[in-house]
Amino acid sequence: MKLQFAVEKHTLKFITPTKTSRNTFDEKLHWIIKIWDVKKPEIAGIGEAAPLQYLSPEYNQNLEITLIKKLDEIVSGKRLEDIDFCKLPSVKFAIESALIDLKNGGKQIYYNSAFLKGKPIPINGLVWMNTPNEMLKEAIEKAKLGFNCIKFKIGSHDFDEECKMIETFRKSEWGKNCIIRLDANGAFENDEALKKISELSKFKIDSIEQPVKPGQFDVLENICRNSKVKIALDEELINIDDFENIDQFLKLIRPQIIIIKPTLLGGIAESEKWIAKSKKYEIDWWATSALESNIGLNIISQWVGKSKPVLHQGLGTGKLYKNNFAIKSNISNGQLYYRV
Q: CB of 19 within 8 A of CB of 129?
């Protein structure tokens, strides 16, 4: 089979500027790739590379040139597993996905999962950084829409104000029975993290993601061991890409949860390595989008659907952009459904 490819760059614009404790996004770059057999050009596999500013190791590179170089290796006959994708996780995810789609007939059916057959995926309602009053209002609105798991981005406001916001939501009619997750994006100082987590535990918090900045293994191990709230690690996973290192990391740190983002971890096969090792140490996981377009979100959702997840996933980002691609899912009562 002789292959050919195309690469298209797209700038997607957020409907509302999207804030975390680190930065604000107004727009985001995405590269959509297509791979096809020159004898059957009407059947093309589609993938997406969408590196995330401040997190993706390849973000500051000329990604389009890198993509083309790696695709040239594919069309020259190299196998995916024989190509060096070191520090290129979004590139590997894009090419891996496109090859899977091509193999399956180019219909954007990546995984034959229960999700495609109508089984929904439970998802959290994400409350982005805003003023505490606006965040509280958004959380209540999402709970009214049927989300029974609400995730707050925290860390950029006065800690007491954030606690008051979370407490008010917890005591409200709509929040009293909700699962509450928090994402600090590394905002807590090392010497304050456990104290702050202890304060937050009063509000029956399910979990908190990345309480301190990544790369501090001793600090993290202590927090995971002594925290009154389950610790979920996110950014911490990005630069650990060797199977043996994954095992050593999980054995040492012992987080209660890991957050799987294929765009940041190097695709589906790499993500499955993390999941396999997490089971060894009885660590839970859920998948979260990394602000992909609806193309990447569709790929991840189909893959997650294979596992018939019980825990709420972070896959509700399909309506963040003004000029997104056609959506292949819809959300109802806090559940993500595949749209046939």
A: yes
